[in-house]
Amino acid sequence: MRGKVFCLVAFAVAMAFVEATVVVYLREIIGSGPIFPMKEIPPLLLAVEIFREAATIVMLLLVAFLSFRGGVHRMGAFLLLFAVWDVFYYLWLFVTIGWPTGIADWDVLFLIPLPWVGPVWSVLLICAGMVVFAILFLRAPEDARFSPGLWGWVAGLLGSATIIATYIIEWIKIGFGAGVPVHFSFLSFLAGLGLLGVSGWITWRKLPVSLR
Length: 212
Hints:
two-stranded antiparallel sheet, 2 strands
């Protein structure tokens, strides 16, 4: 298990560097400086960026799937990969271009289905939760099934939708990227994060007592 976890972390760190270099190149192409107001990205580059983001998620899912047997371990591996990748993405950006200058900086987080806008600290908070549940899930036997049940799925889907909607609404609030963000919708974000935590807790509680 330790060997697999080490390999997953090493993969995520390396992948984060590749991701960061893409952003470095993009900033050279569209111009450096403040991210907001958002700069115009040529249509071809925008399309390539959207497909690259989708490909990144597919890669994380496939590596998690190939690394373990059993749904709980695969989910734990995906959560670990995603969290490490996201944290080191910002670390590599800071190392290469000196940004973000702090966790309060705002960023364009994702572009699917619409741009997500939010502060870096919100991403790090999500990653912290992912690491917690990754540890819990990876401690289960490898053949344990991922079975959140009805309420676990409902809480997980609602939590994900709430967080995504919060980020997209932030983009809308600043005039579809034309303005500068100031206040983050913390309560709705916290509600979404809480629902995701409930989903993870329900899934963990549904494991046999001997596995917890």
